[in-house]
Write a structure and sequence with these properties.
The complex is a heterodimer of chains A (213) and B (182). By secondary structure, chain A is mainly alpha-helical. Chain A contains ten helices and no strands. Chain A has one domain. The mean pLDDT of chain A is 94. Chain B has two domains: 93 residues, Rna Polymerase Sigma Factor, Chain: A; 82 residues, Arc Repressor Mutant, subunit A (Orthogonal Bundle). Helices cover 77% and strands 0% of the residues of chain B. The chains are: A mainly alpha (213), B mainly alpha (182). Chain B: GO terms for molecular function: DNA binding; sigma factor activity. Chain B: Keywords: DNA-binding, Sigma factor, Transcription, Transcription regulation. Chain B: InterPro entries: RNA_pol_sigma-70-like, RNA_pol_sigma-70_dom, RNA_pol_sigma70_r2, RNA_pol_sigma70_r4, RNA_pol_sigma_r2, RNA_pol_sigma_r3/r4-like, WH-like_DNA-bd_sf.
């Protein structure tokens, strides 16, 4: 087929009118994923004892709020990344404030924790629960988000996949943090980050395949 | 050229609201620029025109991802670069290439040859049934795109686009096949 002929026939089929804008689809996908994540959470884990009085301590609240901020910023970045040629904007830099805050909390806790308690707080008692559950709770969110993102056009599928993984993991970690009773930043700044990084890496691998078009 | 960006934005905006003439103008003006990008990025591949067509199809399929407030050229160039890189990857992964014309000409003419017919049937079995049905109707049975469209509830243009895409897919499959035979 000649290119001119192709142009003629493409032009005979105008009016794209996508069923729903990308942002709306993504919102629906994420909410559907969140519903599944919450079912898994209440079925397998459930909130900790005296959740609200625990979260009234800002250091404890940080382990819920920081991943949420991370996740929401990552949602914005992901949506930008699936529009060809669009810039990621200032959010690209702003998102680094979250790991910076995590690192600051870690060092604050390191300084204020007595030397003999540091290793105990750092290792905690729930690493084998924390790491797999952050990843598992991320999966439904990631799946819902990714389904919507496929209607976009990722020109860097691995990057978009990683960002989607980061977004899903941020929200999943927010949910997980209401179960977890490890309240030292020595624990959560380390192991939450590790769980989020694993989910982000998996997101990049899956995105590199499924977001190609 | 800021003018060009504005001009193309204007055309694509009108196109996205259903103005076929503006869309034809947009695609026709954009094609030479896309061709230059494809040629540069593919290192002067022989099948540049195939890549150009893939880019135009991609622009067509993803034109809802352009937002009217954004400039058109970064959007367009990003798609052209992506599709050219994608074509390059596929070509490297595949070794040989079968020009689309070869497959297109084989389809209607060699159905009398049982080997080719069997190969084709096998290839068609490996793409989705919807696309395979369109290739059978248009390519083998010689129905017009309009007839097929009326039957499937698609516009004639949509049938042609689906047919073209299916041929690209078949070409890839045939290329992979030929490779394995070597």
């Amino acid at each position: 087929m000649k290119t001119d002929d192709l142009i003629t026939l493409l032009a005979s089929d105008p009016a794209p009118a996508p069923a729903a804008p990308l942002g709306l689809r993504a919102g629906i996908g994420l909410l559907a994923g969140l519903a599944v994540t919450l079912v898994l959470f209440f079925w397998l884990l459930g909130p900790r004892y005296a959740l609200f009085s625990a979260e009234s301590d800002p250091v404890v609240a940080a382990k819920t709020v920081l991943p949420l901020v991370l996740g929401l910023l990552a949602v914005v970045l992901t949506l930008r990344s699936v529009r060809p040629g669009a810039s990621l904007g200032r959010t690209r830099r702003a998102i680094w404030l979250v790991p910076a805050a995590g690192a600051a909390l870690f060092f604050w806790a390191f300084v204020t924790t007595p030397e003999q308690a540091r290793l105990r707080d750092f290792l905690g008692h729930s690493i084998p629960v924390c790491l797999p559950f952050i990843v598992v709770l991320s999966v439904p969110l990631y799946a819902g988000f990714l389904a919507a993102l496929r209607s976009g056009a990722a020109t860097r599928p691995a990057l978009s996949g990683a960002l989607a993984g980061l977004a899903a993991a941020g929200i999943a970690t927010t949910v997980y943090s209401t179960f977890c009773n490890e309240d030292s930043p020595l624990f959560y700044a380390t192991w939450y980050s590790a769980g989020i990084l694993i989910a982000t890496g998996l997101g990049a691998l899956v995105g590199a395949r499924l977001l190609r078009w | 050229m800021p003018d060009r960006n504005q001009h193309w934005s204007d055309l694509l905006r009108r196109a996205n609201r259903g103005d076929g003439a503006a869309y034809a103008a947009f695609l026709a003006e954009v094609a030479p620029v896309v061709r230059t990008i494809c040629r540069q990025r593919s290192g002067g591949a022989e099948d540049v025109e195939d890549i150009v067509q893939e880019v135009l199809l991609a622009v067509h399929a993803k034109r809802h991802t352009w937002r009217e407030a954004d400039p058109v050229t970064p959007w367009l160039y990003a798609i052209a670069r992506y599709k050219t890189a994608d074509a390059g990857r596929r070509r490297r992964g595949q070794g040989g290439q079968v020009p689309i014309e070869t497959v297109a000409e084989v389809l209607p003419e060699e159905t009398g040859d049982t080997t080719a017919a069997r190969d084709l049937a096998q290839l068609l079995g490996r793409i989705d049934t919807h696309s395979a049905g369109i290739v059978r109707s248009v390519g083998i049975e010689g129905q017009s795109a309009g007839e097929v469209g009326a039957r499937l509830g698609m516009t004639e243009g949509a049938v042609r686009v689906a047919y073209h895409r299916a041929l690209v897919k078949l070409k890839d499959l045939a290329g992979a096949e030929a490779d394995r035979a070597d």
